[in-house]
Amino acid sequence: MPEAKGLLMVASDGNQDLLPSDVWYFLTRFLQKTHEDGTLQYSNIHAIVYFNPRILVKLSGSGQPAFLWMSGARNNDDREMIDFLNALNEGWQTYIEEAGVRLQHVAWKSVRLEDVTFTGAPRRIPRIHIIDPAEDKKVK
After folding, report:
1. pLDDT digits (tens, 9 = 90+) for 114-135
2. How far apart are CA 118 and CA 9, in angstroms?
3. β partners of residue 60
4. Are the C-beta atoms of 44 and 68 separated by less than 8 Å?
5. What is the span of the domain harbouring residue 38?
6. How far apart are CA 54 and CA 120, in angstroms?
7. What is the dihedral of CA 115, 79, 51, 21, to 10 degrees?
8. What's the pLDDT tens digit per position in 51-102?
9. Dihedral pair phi/psi, residue 6, rounded to 5°
10. Is residue 129 domain-resident?
């Protein structure tokens, strides 16, 4: 699959020690690394997603609760990857809503990450169970 693109997904579930702004900074710096000849390291990673699947964050000022979802393509001109990331984000939001969690959508590009902190206790959403049709049993 020579035209396949890599996506690094980082799900921070339960780690409240690293602030979202710090994690996003480390991830973006990671993708800026180059070899001695100037070529990009980890060139098989074309985009990253950083999200918190069960811990809410709050936005400074409004105190609005939200699930964190940050994503970005390594190349800002990669329309195909950007469209995929947007579709993935929409799918995640749909899953959260179907799990019974109703939160206002946050346009993360307009939020200063330095103003985002974790809320107190984590809010749990149902675990995903996959049913193996061959065995007709739940697989964890």
Report:
1. 777 777 634 445 566 677 677 6
2. 19
3. none
4. no
5. 6-121
6. 12
7. -30
8. 888 777 877 767 777 888 889 999 989 999 999 999 999 998 888 888 887 7
9. -95, 145
10. no
